[in-house]
Structures are given as structure tokens and as C-alpha cells.
Amino acid sequence: MAAERRVAALSRHLTSSSDVSLSAKVDLRDFAAEDVYLFLTRDNVELRAKMLDFLKDPMYRPNYYLSLMEFRDLTLRRLQKFVDQKFFSTFDYLNDPLRFMAGLETLASVDYSLCIKAGVHFTLCGGTIAKLGTEKHHKTFLPRLDTLELPGCFGMTELGHGSNVMGIETQATYDEETGEFVINTPTDTASKFWIGGAAQHGKVCTVFAQLTVRGKWEGPHVFVVRLRDDSGQPMPGVRIQDNGPKAGLNGVDNGQLWFYNVRVPRDALLDRYSSVAPDGTYSSPIPSVAQRFGTMVGGLTTGRMLIAQGAIDASKIGVAIALRYACARPQFNGKCIMEYLTHQRRLLPALATTYAMQLQSLRLKDLYMAKRPEDAKTIHVVSSGLKAGATWHRVEILQACRECCGGQGFLAANKIGPMKNDMDVDVTFEGDNTVMMQQVAKALLDTAAKKPPRPQMPSMEGASVTDLTLLAALLRFREDSLTAEVAAAIGRAAKVAAPGGKKAAVAAAADAYEDNLDTVLQLGWAHVDRITFEGFVEEVNTRAPREARPVLSLLATLYGLTRVERALAFYLASGAASGAAAAAVRAGVNGACAALSADGGWAALRLAEGFGIPDHCLEAPIAFDWRQIGSTVTM
Ligand SMILES: Cc1cc2nc3c(=O)[nH]c(=O)nc-3n(C[C@H](O)[C@H](O)[C@H](O)COP(=O)(O)OP(=O)(O)OC[C@H]3O[C@@H](n4cnc5c(N)ncnc54)[C@H](O)[C@@H]3O)c2cc1C
Prior knowledge:
The protein is of the alpha+beta class. It is built from 22 helices and eleven strands. Strand 10 (275-276) and strand 11 form a beta hairpin. The chain starts with a helix and ends with a helix. The chain binds flavin-adenine dinucleotide. The site of flavin-adenine dinucleotide has 19 residues, from strand 1, strand 4 and helix 14.
């Protein structure tokens, strides 16, 4: 009743005109959670169900009492048992990418360490061999990766070079006399650092190193190098050190590697895009070092998509647990905590954002699967933006869910806390988020340099802020304005420096870009906000189950309003929003929250059910009957 009262009151403030678009009684038709699940999960539905069923095995139940070494050991055994089921193969990386991704995505719902251990092995190591290697590499390594006979690592990061991969120091020098490459770590800063699986279990590693042939530097290339022999002993010349305990994700054994003039055969070079003949003749169809480097790291896209999906799936679990608890937990006078506006404000935008990210992930997969060469740049931009957006949203969402569950959110058995710790690193690995958002912004600025955008300020005067077209126009306006602002600053700096020559102009432009990095980051966000909102609306209009369209439309509205509300300072400063319009945005968010949580929050609960998380993956006692927690938590 309180929610309905608030919808009625707030709807009067949504607009300065008489057009009240969020009616007092929002008519949300009944809809089936199963239909929503199929709207959100479009590939390998049966396989996913089969894998989730397999993961009911008690071995995959959380155990928060393990030591570091026990947890690592369990993670390896869990992976081995999963691999033995042959749900997917490393060959699927090329032949059936959706099946490959579905396999790895499913693991995230039971344990993130297991998911990352598998991800490093299959995606980063196996995927790199599949993508950059040729048939001889596929035949030699992929079947042995498929059985986990050769646990795989990915050696890109060095102590001295993380985000700046181009600057790595590890050397690979071709020896024409013996027909071998010599892999060497010249300094401690060149040691490979953070290498997943290296500390204990890894036997083979895809190593990034600067290639020199006949004294000529050819840029970073990738080599398959054995770290340990079949019995698990380090190979001659390979030094391995354990990174030790981490803030989370302790089921993965990360380590540091040094190579002391390790000799590997000529075939160790993954040679799809460049090769070295026995006599030391280097050849590549890709002419420049920079372009070749782009191809070498291009394989990271699948990994980024998986990290984004892992963050989205964790958000689903967190939101589902917190919503179920909120709708069942009374506090003060028998009132359920979900009835408090503060609770709705924390959980319902989180629900809407999770839907937005999930739909964007599906759209990215569609683009990826279309395999059109002309989409390569868009895929890079969208995957970078989604990786950063989804993981940063996850940080906020899981924190909000944790707090919304009060003390219970802090109990490990209730899952949200441990997930938060284990996943904290997803904003850093597979491309640090700040760097990823710059990839997005740079692409927009490149386009703007050729064709500057002309920002169109939408009129909010007299308009309803819940109008989806207005919300889209507002998000577009912000993106175009920020693009124009940074592009103009760069253009001005280059023009001033131009009399000093082209080099001076380029340097001045680079300085101007760095001077505006704060706005550049906002620009990355503005792009992610716009495309995710537009995608959400389009998916609802074209592919959503009919009965669920009203509620999904409301959810999309809430998402759009939340993104506009976050950027209200921009809209007020730019003159797009007046004080009254800002108040209408606030009222719009509160109204949508009230509508979604009315009548015991059935709509919000049903939308969370649409995530399709089986009970054994929700796991948390507070998601079921919180009063029974004393009898369900085991010691
Ligand atoms: C648990 C874990 C597992 C990992 N597993 C692997 C693995 O298996 N294999 C592997 O190769 N690597 C792995 N990594 C490494 C990971 O990919 C790197 O940590 C990541 O690329 C960031 O590099 P860095 O840690 O050196 O940070 P840095 O690049 O030094 O960044 C530090 C800070 O500086 C900022 N910064 C850097 N450059 C810029 C810029 N141009 N503009 C603005 N800000 C900037 C970043 O935003 C960040 O906040 C792992 C890391 C962790 C923590």
C-alpha cells in the first residue's frame, strides 16, 4: 500500500506539464520467469542445464574452512572432474565459441576461483594457441589441454609492465645455428608476474616476448614454453616463485616466472600471423609492428567477454539473494525491509542494471558470431566498454547487496561477501578498467577527428522524464557533448603546435588528451550508458516475451533514469536540465522503484527468478528461510 501511495504522489512530479506518464497504478501483467530466462539466455540452454545439474555434486559446494593449499588443491580437482565430463573442448574456441563460453560461464555460478583457473587454462592459454597457432600447435597441444594433462598458463604481464604490454622486456632471440629461440628474462622487472596456474600446477605457458631475428626487432610475439615436465618438475632454466596469498581468488595459484636463456624449438612460435624460416628469414602478412601487436592481443576479446559475463552473473546472484531476503525480512513494526525507499533505491537500479548488462552481453555475442571483418573495431570497443562497465557495476551492486542484507550479508555462508572478495580483481585483469574505458573513448575521438559530432540538446521542458525517447536523447547528448569537448581540446592544442611541424602537433595532441583524462573516462562511461540503454529498449521491443514487456519496459526506464540521475551535474551544468527537471528525474526513479516493489515485491522477485539461478547455486541460507539459518549453516 505504501508503494502504491508513493507511485501516486510521485507521478505528479514527473513532469512540469499535465502529462503524467507513470500512472498511480502501474499495470504489470503476470509473466512467466521461464520466458524471461529464455529472453536472457539464448544459447546452449540444454547444455547449461546439464552442466548446472552436474555441479550439484557435493564437491562443488562452498567450503570456507580450507587453507590456501587445500583450496588450490580442491580447485584443481574440481576442474579435473569438470573437464572429464567433456562438456566442451578447446577446439570449440574456434569451432563453436558460444558453447566454449557457455562452459566457462557456468563455472562462475559455483566458484570464481574455479572459473578463473579454467578460464586461464582454456581461454587464455588454449584460446591463444587456437587463435595464433597453426595446425601443428593445435594437434600437439589442444588435445592435451582438453584432458588437463597439460595445465596451461598465460604469460603476458611482467612485474614492470602490466597495462603497457607493448613495453614488455622478455626477449626471444632466434638462433640460426640451432634453429631455436632463446627465451630470456633480462631483469627482475621482466619476470612474468601474476601468472595464473604458474605457482603449482602449470606445465605449459603461452609466453609473450619481444622477438629479435637476425638482429632486427620484430615486436611482441607469443611462444609456447614448457614450465614443468610431465612429472611436475620445473624445466631447466625456468625459475618459479609463488605469489602467495591474495585478497581473494585464493583457489588460483598465481606465480612469478623467470626464463634463463631457455631454448625452445622453432615451432614454439605461434605462427599464424608471422613466421621465421630455418635460415632466419622473418615474414608476416601484417607489415607494421603496431598492427601485429594488435593481432597478438586481439585474442583477449573472448576473455574480456567472459570476465564481463562473470560480473553480470555474480550481480544476478547478489541481487537475487538480497531481494529474496528483503521481501521476507521484517524490521520495525512488521514492515518488510523491501518497503523502505532506501532499500528499493539500492536493489532495484541494481536489478535494472544487471538486465541492461546481460542484454548488452547478448548483443555483443551476436556481433561476435556474425564474424564480419568490418565489425572488428566495434567488437573491440563494445567488449572493452562492457568489460569495464559490467565489472564496475558489479563492484557497486555486490556492495549494495551486502549492505542490504545487514549482518547476514557479511556471513560467508550467504555468499555475497566471498563473491565480492574473489571478484574484486575483475576490474583489473583482462585489461584494467581505466585503460579499457580509454579504448572506448579513443575510438570515439578518432571518429570525431574525421567527423565532429554536433550535440543536440533535448528539451526536457514539459516532457515526461520517463519517456524512453527522451532518455535516449539525453544519453546521446552527453556522449556527443563530451566527445566534442575533448576533441576540441585536442584539436586546439594540435593547431597551436602545428607551426613546429607534424611531430610537435602530434605530441601536443597527446598531451591535451592526457590533460583531459578525467573527461575521457566520463566519455567512456557515457558511451557505455547510451549503448546499453538503447540495446535494452530495442531488446524489450523486439525480442521480449509479450506478457513481460510492460515490466521490462519499466525496468529499462528505471535503468535510463538512473544513468541520467548519475550524470545530473552534467545535465544541470549544460543547461539541458532545470532544477524542476532534476526533481522529476528523482521522482521518476522513486516511482519506478515503488511500482516494482509493490504488492510484496512480486515483480522484482519474478524478474530475479528470470535469471534462472538454481537453488544449489544461490546456496545462501538467507535466500530461503532466514529464520532457519542457525540450523542450515554447517561448521
Ligand atoms: C589475480 C590476478 C591474476 C592475474 N592473472 C594473470 C595471468 O594469468 N596472466 C597474465 O599475463 N596476467 C595476469 N594478471 C595481470 C593483470 O592482467 C594485470 O594486473 C593488469 O593488466 C594490470 O596491470 P598492473 O597490475 O601492472 O597495473 P598497472 O598497469 O601498473 O596499473 C596500475 C594503475 O595505474 C593505472 N594506469 C595504468 N596505465 C594508465 C594509463 N595509461 N592511464 C591512466 N591510468 C593508468 C591503472 O588504471 C591502475 O589503476 C593477473 C592479475 C591479477 C591481480
